[in-house]
């Protein structure tokens, strides 16, 4: 039989084209087959590598000739376009899935098989690929979603191509090519292909050539549409004696494999048909015997590559592989053959891919060498592992790009983090814009060792990108998250109310957001109310229960209930719910917890609330945390969180007439329901906790009951403090807090410099971090801290901190905690920051306080842990630990010092605890 080319399609005499794009034999009379076979026995043979529509080489009822050619149907793009249209930066037509039919490659080649024809087919023939503008390719198989590993591969190739376009110019051959490798017919689906393309579009990895560009120079870009090309090149290899037909049956191959295994030989094809008599081959073909086409591995062949990541890699081809298959008996080309042909025909200069493809390079290299096409440069990247050091998979959580999009990650943050999974620019910089990555990326800096996918690190990178964006820039993305949680009504919702609620939710969460989803989650928490109906329902040892036992909560709650019932408690103004979220001076969104809206307008809700708190403090003789903590718990059901006026404003928006919020999905607890539950809760508080212990002044008690030391000790303290040069003027003043201080010595506390070496989130308590902190002992201490509402794990890791070390170990939500990290906070504790330690301070050294006299009986040594707890030593000292107007942590006006200098904090006039 004779393989020939027509101008528009590949034709086999005695065959017809099928819808699938592979060729089918015609059933010619036996006499005709015998005559054709006899005509070529004495010379050579050409193979009809083709199949019937059922995928098995056979025959049809057509007599020799060209059957009617069917075109592939145009694929449905509606689902892809609907998904892609929601992605920022999408433009109509970007994902137009125009069909490039299987016959298009036929116009690329003729019936000639000469050397000149092959040079035309391979644009890089005779050239040094290292000197050419980079043509990069990403070649996904449409058998599933785009996952992290594939996205990283696409990114690295895209970065090299974009940098090439910067260096060589966009009008050169430099390009990012998207090629769909859909030779796995059983598993490849159009839905998977559409999903992959949409994910690449979301990531912003726009291709220069791809399956949506039927007129591109090197198209088509789906392997299923390039059958004619593969067939032609396979025939060329046969004509040149570099490939041959193999008629071994599956049973014979299994027998061959078993025989070699029994002999202890690695199984491979034994070359049965490698040098077969052409007459026998022609007779087999004429008889319609199924066959495959195998590559003839040259004797002594060796493939050596200079891998950009792994260095020199070599294979002894003859010892490693037998003669491998190029075309299956169904006529479908195998993966490695398609890849090698496509890389050569598309002029690919560099291939960046996962290390699992390294072994494929042997077969691909042999094919390229046989075709006389230059091999591209290779870079095989190591695998991405989960935190358990196993290959990343679904069991590690989200791995598909679409899931990360749904979870609220930004595409620029994903690109940033993926780039760092196996590459760095040689600096400590970890945050890059897209343009900065293009400029900095160097294939030679891809690391050889595997990378571990760290979800906390990804969230940190995402948070850094979010912080650089304005509230207005992410409103549409936060709205998507609110809709995803069904928190906003869709049918007939007032657009202005939707915009206002989205704006408030975004501004409220902006500084603490790690993902866009956090804005929706935070809004749910703010709209909810977690105060139980009974005091006994609070967990023993919880922060809320301990605060209530101090006695201030009951009286403050009664005052709030009294004001609520008399309509004197200030509520947000329905004409301006956004007052708490907008800076009146510039109209910009307020994102800092330390700043509230309203300006100087005394009638604004934030100012009315502030005035009410001042009045309560005066009437009840209580201030600071002893006022703000009870108020916060009573109104919001939480011990910590964002500014109360902002929280109540968001709540008011959710319950207003004509609200756009789905109360059930959002978990809304209206203010009146909160007050009813608060009243019920207060009725269950034991009598002994309904008032604070009497102080020496008999007031509401900011400090609680304390014993008074001897007058001589106080006088001695005053005299010594007066003599210190650092604070002589303050010491001589009656305002010096040290003069009236009667508590335990500050030296009773063992405050040391520590370094946080590991951080992770508590599995059950959503406000706790678990930390390992080096405080100069044989082993790091395990400490739990309630810092999750205020900072991320990455903010804590490797930080130098101050640690109160002589606290008795106790379990916090089941976690054994031995110590406490000292932090500074503002007046209502809505903002909490770590106390900063000088960079040269020594881990494990004790903090000192200069200018504090030694009281009678004070040895200067820290108290034992049980004494600290029983005598409530820290509770008595804590009210005198404050930050100065310059943010310096002080005890009675004296700074906390290390051997390297003074400790600091970003919060002025705050408290330290």
Automatic annotation (TrEMBL):
GO cellular component labels: mitochondrion
UniProt-listed Enzyme Commission number(s): 6.1.1.17
Regions of compositional bias (Basic and acidic residues) in chain numbering: 699-709
Gene Ontology biological process terms from the UniProt entry: translation
Record InterPro entries: aa-tRNA-synth_I_cd-bd (IPR045462), aa-tRNA-synth_I_codon-bd_sub2 (IPR020751), aa-tRNA-synth_I_CS (IPR001412), aa_tRNA-synth_I_cd-bd_sf (IPR008925), Glu-tRNA-ligase_bac/mito (IPR004527), Glu/Gln-tRNA-synth (IPR000924), Glu/Gln-tRNA-synth_Ib_cat-dom (IPR020058), GluQ/Sye (IPR049940)
Matches recorded under SUPFAM superfamilies: An anticodon-binding domain of class I aminoacyl-tRNA synthetases (SSF48163), Nucleic acid-binding proteins (SSF50249), Nucleotidylyl transferase (SSF52374)
Subcellular location: Mitochondrion
One Pfam family matching this protein: Anticodon_2
Protein name per the record: glutamate--tRNA ligase
């Amino acid at each position: 039989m004779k393989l020939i080319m027509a101008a528009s399609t590949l034709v086999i005499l005695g065959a017809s084209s099928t819808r699938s794009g592979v060729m089918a034999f015609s059933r010619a009379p036996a006499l005709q087959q015998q005559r054709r076979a006899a005509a070529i026995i004495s010379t050579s043979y050409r193979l009809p590598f083709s199949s019937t529509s059922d995928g098995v080489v056979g025959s049809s009822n057509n007599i020799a000739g060209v059957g009617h050619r069917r075109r592939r149907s145009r694929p449905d793009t509606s689902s892809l376009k609907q998904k892609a249209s929601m992605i920022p930066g999408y433009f109509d037509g970007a994902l137009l899935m125009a069909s490039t039919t299987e016959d298009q490659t036929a116009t690329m080649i003729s019936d000639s098989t000469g050397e000149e024809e092959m040079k035309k087919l391979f644009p890089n023939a005779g050239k040094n690929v290292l000197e050419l503008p980079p043509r990069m390719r990403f070649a996904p198989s449409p058998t599933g979603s785009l996952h992290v590993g594939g996205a990283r591969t696409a990114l690295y190739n895209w970065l090299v191509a974009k940098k090439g376009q910067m260096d060589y110019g966009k009008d050169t051959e430099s390009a990012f090519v998207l090629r769909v490798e859909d030779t796995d017919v059983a598993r490849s689906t159009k839905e998977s292909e559409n999903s992959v393309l949409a994910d690449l579009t979301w990531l912003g990895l726009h291709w220069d050539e791809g399956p949506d560009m039927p007129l591109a120079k090197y198209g088509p870009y789906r392997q299923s549409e390039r059958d004619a090309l593969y067939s032609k090149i396979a025939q060329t290899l046969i004509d040149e004696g570099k490939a041959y037909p193999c008629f071994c049956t599956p049973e014979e191959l299994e027998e061959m494999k078993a025989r070699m295994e029994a002999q202890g030989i690695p199984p491979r094809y034994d070359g049965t048909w490698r040098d077969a008599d052409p007459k026998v081959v022609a007779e087999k073909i004429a008889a319609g015997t199924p066959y495959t086409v195998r590559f003839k591995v040259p004797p002594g062949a060796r493939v050596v590559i200079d891998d950009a990541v792994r260095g020199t890699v070599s294979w002894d081809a003859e010892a490693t592989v037998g003669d491998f298959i190029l075309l299956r008996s169904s006529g479908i080309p195998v993966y490695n053959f398609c890849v090698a042909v496509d890389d050569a025909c598309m002029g690919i200069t560099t291939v960046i891919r996962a290390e699992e493809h390294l072994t494929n390079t042997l077969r691909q290299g042999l094919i390229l060498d046989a075709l006389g096409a230059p091999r591209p440069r290779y870079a095989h990247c190591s695998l991405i592992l989960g935190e358990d050091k196993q290959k990343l998979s679904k069991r590690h959580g989200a791995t598909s790009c679409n899931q990360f999009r749904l979870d609220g990650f930004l595409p620029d943050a994903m690109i940033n983090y993926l780039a760092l999974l196996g590459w760095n620019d040689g600096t400590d910089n970890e945050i890059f814009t897209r343009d900065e990555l293009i400029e900095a990326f160097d294939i030679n800096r891809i690391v050889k060792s595997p990378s571990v996918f760290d979800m906390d690190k990804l969230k940190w990178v995402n948070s850094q990108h979010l912080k650089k964006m304005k509230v207005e820039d992410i409103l549409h993305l936060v709205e998507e998250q609110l809709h995803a949680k069904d928190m906003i009504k869709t049918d007939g919702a007032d657009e202005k109310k939707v915009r206002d609620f989205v704006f408030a939710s975004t501004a409220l969460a902006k500084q603490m957001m790690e993902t866009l989803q956090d804005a929706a989650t935070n809004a749910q928490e703010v709209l909810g109310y977690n105060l139980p109906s009974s005091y006994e329902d609070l967990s023993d040892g919880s922060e809320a229960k301990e605060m209530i036992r101090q006695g201030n909560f009951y009286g403050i709650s009664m005052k709030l209930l009294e004001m609520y019932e008399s309509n004197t408690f200030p509520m947000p103004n329905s004409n301006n719910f956004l007052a708490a979220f907008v800076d009146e001076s510039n109209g910009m969104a307020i994102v800092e917890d330390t700043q509230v809206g309203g300006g100087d307008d005394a009638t604004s809700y934030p100012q009315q609330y502030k005035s009410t708190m001042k009045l309560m403090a005066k009437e009840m003789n209580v201030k600071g945390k002893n006022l703000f903590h009870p108020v916060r718990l009573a109104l919001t059901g939480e011990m910590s969180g964002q500014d109360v006026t902002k929280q109540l404003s968001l709540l008011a928006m959710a319950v207003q007439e004509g609200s756009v919020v789905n109360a059930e999905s959002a978990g809304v607890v209206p203010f009146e329901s909160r007050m009813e539950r608060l009243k019920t809760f207060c009725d269950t508080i034991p009598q002994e906790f309904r008032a604070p212990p009497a102080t020496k002044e008999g007031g509401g008690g900011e400090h609680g009951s304390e014993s008074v030391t001897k007058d001589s000790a106080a006088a001695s303290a005053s005299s010594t403090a007066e003599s210190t040069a650092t604070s002589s003027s303050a010491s001589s003043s009656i305002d010096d807090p040290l003069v009236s201080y009667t508590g335990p010595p500050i030296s009773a506390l063992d405050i040391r410099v520590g370094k946080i070496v590991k951080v992770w989130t508590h599995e059950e308590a959503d406000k706790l971090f678990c930390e390992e902190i080096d405080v100069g002992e044989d082993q790091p201490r395990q400490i739990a801290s309630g810092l999750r509402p205020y900072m991320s794990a990455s903010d804590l890791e490797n930080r130098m901190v101050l640690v109160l070390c002589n606290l008795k170990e106790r379990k916090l939500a089941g976690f054994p905690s031995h110590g406490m990290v000292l932090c500074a906070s503002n007046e209502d504790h809505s903002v909490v920051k770590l106390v900063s330690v000088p960079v040269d301070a020594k881990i494990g050294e004790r903090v000192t306080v200069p200018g504090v006299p030694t009281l009678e009986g004070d040895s200067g040594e820290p108290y034992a842990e049980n004494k600290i707890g029983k005598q409530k030593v820290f509770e008595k000292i804590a009210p005198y630990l404050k930050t100065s107007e310059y943010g310096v942590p002080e005890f009675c006006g004296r700074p906390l010092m290390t051997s390297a200098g003074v400790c600091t904090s970003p919060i002025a006039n705050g408290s330290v605890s």
